[in-house]
Structures are given as C-alpha cells and as structure tokens.
Amino acid sequence: MKINARSIVIAAAGVLLVAAVVVGSLVADRFWSDRTAERNRTSAAAFAQDTVEDLFTYNYDSAEKELPKVADRLSGAYRDSYMQVINEQAIPAAKEKKLNVQTIVQATGVIDSTRDSVTVLVIADQRFSSSDSGKETLASDRLQVKLTKHKDSWLVSDIKTI
C-alpha cells in the first residue's frame, strides 16, 4: 500500500469535516439550550408574578370560591399545604374579620434556572383592609418561589419567605 500526498489531503479533509460537524453540533446545542433557558426564565418570572398575586389576593366575601381555584397552579405537597392553610386559617379569618387583601408584585428576578425548574425572587406588597375596622395595613415580603415544569406549563412547588 502506497501513501501519496493526495490520500493524506483527502484523509485530512475528512477529519476536518468530521471535526467541523462535531463543533457545529455542540455550538448549535449550546445555542438552543441557552435560548430555551432564557425563555424559561422569562415565562417563569411572569408566571410567578401572576400566581403570587392570585394566591395572596382575596376578599372575605369571595375567598371561599376564589382561593381554591389558584391551587391548580400548585404541585404536590405544596398544593396540599396551601389547601389546608386556606381552609383552616385564611378563609375563616377573612370571614370573621371581613378582611380584604390585595397583593401586588413589585419586582421579580430569576435566582436559578434549569430546563425543568426555576427559582424566582418575588418582592410583593400587601394591603390588608377590614370592613369592620376601616383600618388599612401595609406589608412587604420577599418570597423565594420554586417552579417546576409539568408538561408545557409551570407549577409552584414551594414558596418561602426570605
């Protein structure tokens, strides 16, 4: 077997072609992964904002009907815990004190994200007012909201005050 210059050039071109395809595939995968992560961050922050406002906003006369609807955006043990708290504490207290609560998210920021989960920092203000006393109370909270991807949508898997 005789090796000539032409054979070496063809072999080198083949190796370079394979290397270019591998590098191109890696770059494309990284690009799409980054693009997906950015979309996840954007959609998760918006979902966290809407969900926090809906979870913690209620009027005493409609809390029993409205608050359980939001539980569809929660997952697993956090959903069970939320249902227990609203049924045993929030709804009875709201009715007893004729309490109205309005929650407005002031800012959100993604702390961490992967393809299937995102952690969002949420800064929210709450206005508590009672029909009985006429007093208003304001409060601000920083929340860490953990979201998990379920099929094509986000679900809240945990919320912690920080």
Description:
There is one protein chain. This protein is an alpha+beta fold and 162 residues long. 50% of the residues lie in helices and 34% in strands. It has a five-stranded antiparallel β-sheet. It is rod-shaped and about 100 Å long. The chain starts with a helix and ends with a strand. The mean pLDDT is 89. It is found in: Membrane. Its main location: membrane. Keywords: Membrane.
Compose a concise summary of this entry:
This protein has 162 residues and is an alpha+beta fold. 50% of the residues lie in helices and 34% in strands.
The SSE order reads: HEHHEEEE
**Global shape:** rod-shaped
**Got a strand count?**
5
In the CATH hierarchy, the third-tier topology is known as: Nuclear Transport Factor 2, Chain: A
Distance between the termini: 73 Å
Please give the share of residues in helix. Answer: 40-55%
What is the count of distinct domains?
1
| CATH architecture name | Roll
Beta content? 25-35%
The structure class reads: alpha+beta
CATH class: Alpha Beta
Number of continuous helical runs: 3
The biggest sheet, with number of strands, parallel, antiparallel or mixed sense and barrel status, is: 5 strands, antiparallel
**Whole-number average pLDDT?**
89
C-alpha Rg, in Å?
26 Å
Spans of 5+ residues with little confidence (pLDDT < 50)? Answer: none
- Largest beta sheet: what is the strand line-up? 1-2-3-4-5
Quickly list its features.
162 residues, alpha+beta, Nuclear Transport Factor 2, Chain: A, 5-stranded antiparallel sheet, 3 helices, 5 strands, rod-shaped
